[in-house]
Amino acid sequence: MEKCVDDMQTSSAKRMIGKVAVITGGARGIGAATAKLFAENGAHVVIADVLDELGTNLANSIGARYIHCDVSKEEDVESAIKLAVTWKGKLDILFSNAGIGGPAGSITSLDMEQVKHLISINLLGNVHGIKHAARAMLTCHSKGSIVCTSSSAGIMGGLASHTYSLSKAAIIGLMRTAACELGEHGIRVNCISPHGVPSEMLMSGYRLFMGNEVRPEEVSKLVSEKGSLLRGKTPTAEDVAKAAMFLASDDAGFITAHNLVLDGGYTSGTTTMNCIYQ
């Protein structure tokens, strides 16, 4: 029995051995949790972000590489992909995770320059990532995996600002069309849609959307009580990281064009009628 457990742990520890991954928005939050988990499981990780100090410190601590990358600039994303290929000779995984929140406000008074800025990061950043990751994977003949971060706000109205919701919904559509083309070459493309993870981005988005400050523990409490079907349970960045590792790994070898929703059932059901079960 002990040998069986040891074998299972060894197998799990080697889940990403030899994989080369680029993670955008990898310096903090969900991206940082994923970078750590990938590295712990044997992957060679390139962290791409605009937060240079955080990104460099994290990369040094886990044996990764860091590159400054503004995903709204195609040349920055291309450079991040090239770094991975130059470093290890191939690209197996792109976790296209970078994003921002806001702008908030009525649809009738949106600042269109702010809208364009958000879309340039949240949506075009994913276009840039998929484009250049796919090129690298095709050149290296890698049957790779591309994972994009969407959101529960991309599949359900009223959870975030108009522009953020628009960008996250569009990512899901982009993922599906990319999966249709790239599947011919064995490249898988999927999404993760987290809900209520108290990350730095969610905190800033909440401030813009609701107009007041909120602490991470308050968000966790709200999600625990009213934001999922799993009472008393709250989502974490590590939960999303585990989902990203699953979709990126060979364990998900027959999964593509899929949006994996991490919401505790929130967008699929309601607890408002729980009285009928009592």
TrEMBL record:
Q: Give the originating organism.
A: Corchorus olitorius
| Annotated protein name in UniProt | Short-chain dehydrogenase/reductase SDR
Keywords from the UniProt entry: Oxidoreductase
SUPFAM superfamilies, A to Z: NAD(P)-binding Rossmann-fold domains
Q: Which GO terms describe its molecular function?
A: oxidoreductase activity
Could you tell me which InterPro entries the record lists for this protein? NAD(P)-bd_dom_sf, SDR_fam
The family classification in the record reads: Belongs to the short-chain dehydrogenases/reductases (SDR) family.
| Annotated Pfam families | adh_short_C2
